[in-house]
Amino acid sequence: MKIAILGGTGPQGQGLALRFASAGVPVVLGSRDAQRAAEIAAELNAQLALPESLIEGQDNLGAVAAANEIVMLAVPYSAHDATLRSIKPLLGGKILVDLVVPLMEGDPKRVAMPVEGSATEAAQALLGEEIPVVGALHNVSAATLKHLEKAINCDILVCGNDLEAKNKVIELIKQLDVQAYNAGPAESARCIEAITPILIRLNISKAVPFTHAGIRIWAPGS
Amino acid sequence: MKIAILGGTGPQGQGLALRFASAGVPVVLGSRDAQRAAEIAAELNAQLALPESLIEGQDNLGAVAAANEIVMLAVPYSAHDATLRSIKPLLGGKILVDLVVPLMEGDPKRVAMPVEGSATEAAQALLGEEIPVVGALHNVSAATLKHLEKAINCDILVCGNDLEAKNKVIELIKQLDVQAYNAGPAESARCIEAITPILIRLNISKAVPFTHAGIRIWAPGS
Asked: Contact, A143 vs A10, CB < 8 A?
């Protein structure tokens, strides 16, 4: 199983590549710039120093083509729709995992949701029902991902309208030693994506003693 | 400081009354039926067996009039707007704390948000800017509240457009020995209210080993 991470040269993409490769999952970073993707991949492989280099870099289309099944979209929101349109012809038989949070331009403490309700719903509308879209990994900070010596400090809420696709993504994410929960249909992304700016607000606030907050599902006895 | 809890005879209202009274905060339960409010108050006082009875019951208008400053609205969503309209003339100088989650009729695993975006925003629009509305305590289950021998298992996300009012509510909630965080403006209620049906979904799911899930803000080292 080889996964693609588009926007893979950004902080979150790099952090996820490190985590997945550490868990033994081969990753193709996708970028508009294939050269830059290859350079970042080489840096990340050097950082990991695994017996085998599990991270490679390609342009976005090459990365999608190289992925067996799962394509993660971790681009800035401003590139969300255009990237999806460009890769749509290559997504047949694959699952699009949407990590994008529609942060408000100029104010990352707020969302500016698309008319569809959320980025995940917008992606599903754009790709059509044939290509399952799963929303996940919105609330885990890049800094948290990059500190490989520490466990990831949050749970992952996963949503989407296709249960089989959602379960595959949940199983993949669990390889990162985190809990991942089925949080319902794509519509739940309206909530899940909007958790990120609340966490950003807490991280910025001087009232709170932490800088890379995540959320956890908690229950009596857990 | 005496607080009112409207819808106080429901499970969440009763649970909150027990917790606040245990923390030494006097509570007036409000209900459409003053007689029932008084009966429930007597039952809760008997359960607490404190030296002084801190819980009383009145009709909704009487409860609002009796509250010094903070009026909590914990009615079912179907009664949200009508209750607010009936108490509006008595809310001058007070803070309305909105706990209501617009769960979808017939499917508590989904929200059906009002056109304003959330119940909190709808309340603020209905009451006008003179009366500050603070959204809080949406995600704590009645069962969790009623088990007084156990600490509350979640953090409280608090939102609203009036910072002073929000800080007063945060201080009040912290008396329950829980963390309460400023999660931003009233708009954040679109996210916070929608967390509840996700928790309900997890509680119902057989895939998850708990029945009264809450959320926590978590960070490295916490």
From this structure: no
All residues of chain A having their beta carbon less than 8 Å from the beta carbon of residue B109 are 184
Radius of gyration, alpha carbons of chain B: 16
Cα nearest neighbour of A214 on chain B: B218
Q: Which of B148, B147, B155 is nearest to B211 (CA)?
A: B147
Per-residue pLDDT tens for A2-60? 999 999 999 999 999 999 999 999 999 999 999 999 999 999 999 999 999 999 999 99
Instruction: Decide: residue B152, CB within 10 A, 0-12 exposed, 13-18 middle, 19+ buried.
Output: buried
Q: Quick one: which of A109, A163, A21 has its CA closest to B159? A: A109
B217 and B181 in contact (C-beta within 8 Å)?
A: yes
DSSP state for residue A137 in the 8-state scheme: -
Question: Quick one: residue B93, left, alpha or beta (phi over 0 = left, psi -120 to 50 = alpha)?
Answer: left
Phi, psi values for residue A169, rounded to 5°:
-70, -40
Residue B206's Cβ-count burial label (10 Å; 0-12, 13-18, 19+) is exposed
- Residues B120-152: pLDDT tens digits? 999 999 999 999 999 999 999 898 899 999 989
Residues of B in contact with A181 (CB under 8 A): 202, 207-208
| Facing A213 at nearest CB: one of B109, B214, B218 | B218
Record: contact B184-A191, CB cut-off 8 A: no
ipTM, interface predicted TM-score of the complex: 0.93
Residue A198 to residue B153, Cβ atoms within 8 A: no
Backbone angles phi and psi of B71, in degrees to 5:
-120, 120
CA-to-CA distance for B80 and B74, rounded, in angstroms? 8
SS3 A6: strand
